[in-house]
């Protein structure tokens, strides 16, 4: 049984709509991070010769 | 320092003190004093989380690191967004749901009292000492730059912070953090704008010069475990470090426990997930631009003015010879920098490429003279000669316009205060909740516990100020404590991860924690070349493995 679905941890598992909202937030965080890393990569390859 | 800059500094300190003290009206029990009755909005908590992490070391040490090493340090934070997303569905709802004051209190509910007490004790030991070093770092620099007595520097930062934290509790800490974070970001942005105006080449040329000497080299994809900052150590080791720091370290856990709901706590952490890497890039870029600035404006050979004066007085012949060589090397580097950017912005240009190589050579020549000068400092003073922390303060005082220098120094003090206040607040919480109320006075009345909490905050503040004042003499002791801290950081995370695995128990957690710390200590002494970020991974994985095995073979309590 997965840790977060164990009865003792039941209160940890967010309800479905909250879970969906959180997935969207997580996707946004990763999108921003990837964009930031790409910007840093662009700085490096453009100027660091 | 100019009286206008002094006036800004004094006004800032007086305002923070007044604002903090007036918050005491809302704290008449320990839930209010330590957790603001779990009522704070996500944005205030989020700014407090960021302000706690960003200390004066970031403002003067990391910017200096940007000037000497460039942007590669930023890789340390690559794991932070992932850690925040993981925490949002694991420890944040777990700790909020458990309605605890401290992360360690949760461990007693899940495992047993000895696991709670051991983790809380380790927290008090490491944070108590680190609080002193956080005050000491800017105090040492201010003492050298302004010629102040160390005690006076420590008092200027420490006393107001201890007072507002002791009187106003977490409300004062959080709302001061909000204003301090705004001040810090404004100060950094103002310095960048001033630098862009003062540097006598275009921003693109400035980036080309920084890039030519490797200062825009961010990514290192090597799997070399001895390199501290690589992409992989940042993504893997950094994720474990940030999980441990934000999820199990009371100085951060207490920030998000003050949020009014689990959703607010999650959102407050997301603020760091979005902004920490760009903010850290801004901090490092300040340093990179300061380096570009000093390509065209003569800077000192030694940045620490005290060391400079001492060497000049005690070894004048050697100092003058090095100074003459430094000026020559600096002049050649300036010519090469001008040639590298003259009339051509094409980075692949055949014209600029040889000039870039000349710049790299002349930069190496400047660094070689500086290395000899630093060795002379060590020889004369008998003390470590690293002077990276002095680069930005000297630039600020010598070159920032009137008033802006005062704002930046206030920003450095704000960064120190915000970290110290959160640490004092959490040290007091762990002392009172995990030890005093748990073991000595479980039936203590609310007014009594509130009084004890304020006394504990004051005593921890006093301890931190004493450690800071004698930091120079306690150097090796502080290093030992910090090293010891790195032994258990990943291991404590392992205990919390173990808590989320069904059928694990107290003996598993306790012996897992001891095994994790032991293995990390063995790796540290047996393979000292392994970079510290990997210690967090090793510690957490060991605790999980040993914890699961011990739990499987140890008898389960009847109530489980």
Write the layout of secondary structure elements.
The complex is a heterodimer of chains A (49) and B (560).
Chain A: H1 16-47
Chain B: H1 3-22, H2 30-35, H3 42-53, H4 56-69, H5 80-89, H6 91-97, H7 103-110, H8 113-146, H9 150-198, H10 203-212, H11 231-248, H12 250-257, H13 262-296, H14 305-314, H15 316-341, H16 352-381, H17 391-399, H18 404-440, H19 446-469, H20 475-499, H21 506-526, H22 533-553
Helix pairs in contact in B: 1-9, 1-18, 3-9, 3-12, 3-13, 3-18, 4-13, 4-18, 5-6, 5-11, 5-13, 7-8, 8-9, 8-18, 8-19, 8-20, 9-13, 9-18, 9-19, 10-13, 11-12, 11-20, 11-22, 12-18, 14-15, 14-16, 15-16, 17-18, 18-19, 20-21, 20-22, 21-22
Question: How would you explain this protein's 3D organization?
Answer:
The complex is a heterodimer of chains A (49) and B (560). Chain A contains 1 helix and no strands. By secondary structure, chain A is mainly alpha-helical. Chain A has one domain. Chain B is built from 22 helices and no strands. The termini of chain B are far apart. The mean pLDDT of chain B is 90. Chain B is globular. The A-B interface holds A 1, 3-4, 6, 8-9, 11-12, 14, 18, 22, 25-26, 29-30, 32-33, 36-37, 40-41, 43-44, 46-49 and B 71, 74, 78, 81-82, 84-85, 88-90, 93-94, 97, 207-208, 210-212, 214-219, 263, 266-267, 270, 273-274, 277-278, 281, 347-348, 353, 356, 500-502.
Provide a short characterization of the protein structure:
The complex is a heterodimer of chains A (49) and B (560). Helix content of chain A is 65%, strand content 0%.
Entry keywords:
heterodimer; A: mainly alpha; B: 560 residues; mainly alpha; Sodium/glucose cotransporter; 2 domains; 0% strand
Q: What Rg of chain B, in angstroms, do the CA atoms define?
A: 25 Å
The third-level CATH topology of the largest domain in chain B is Sodium/glucose cotransporter
| End-to-end Cα distance of chain B | 65 Å
CA-based shape of chain A: rod-shaped
Structural class of chain B: mainly alpha
Strand/helix succession of chain B = HHHHHHHHHHHHHHHHHHHHHH
Q: Strand portion of chain B, in percent?
A: under 5%
Radius of gyration of chain A: 18 Å
> What structural class results from the helix and strand content of chain A?
mainly alpha
